[in-house]
Amino acid sequence: MAPHALLHELGVPFDLVHVDVASGAHRAPGYTALNPNQRVPTLVHGDHVLYESAAILLYLCESHPESGLMPLPGNPRRHLFLQWLFYFTNTLQEDLQHWWHADNYVTAEACRSDMKAVAEQRLGRFFSRFDSSLAKDGPYVLGAQFSACDLFFVMLCRWTRQMPVTALDYPQIKRLVDLVTQRPAWRAMMADEGINWNGPLT
Ligand SMILES: N[C@@H](CCC(=O)N[C@@H](CS)C(=O)NCC(=O)O)C(=O)O
Question: Which domains does the chain have, with CATH numbers?
Fold first, then answer.
């Protein structure tokens, strides 16, 4: 969702190829030749093939420095962009993976339930802290400036939609989500993918 929305933000031409994870298309040889780790998404740009959505965001922003969607080196908010993008991809997304896919980590049902419960607590503590920081320096991840980091964060907020407490229960986070999901690029991405906020994981 985030790389796809970014392509719309950039206004560049692209082809979207649906890889149907539900039917195992990400394990088919044609796809694993591109991404041996069997995950979506993968970006193919000329001779370049890359996966990991945060890396794709960085790559696309670097390819379009004029877009203003990433603070460039020398910008006083550059370090925050890097900090949050990495935190979101290696910590927040990992907690969400534990909740959705505990079976990828542990086998016993009791362990899976425990893992989900701990993930929920960790997510709750993070969202609470982050909501307070947005109240002081929002409405976006980098403050007043919208950036590709917001696309990544809002994508992850959607992963909470089946949890007892969702990211939208935090008022400043909800404000950020509302701002981003009203953007034409986000709406175009959702329309292309045929999904809504509360629909199944794609
Ligand atoms: N860190 C990766 C995570 C990608 C990821 O988990 N993708 C899911 C999308 S539902 C997937 O491909 N799942 C298939 C599987 O794990 O078998 C990224 O951000 O690109």
Answer: 2-68 (3.40.30.10), 78-188 (1.20.1050.10)
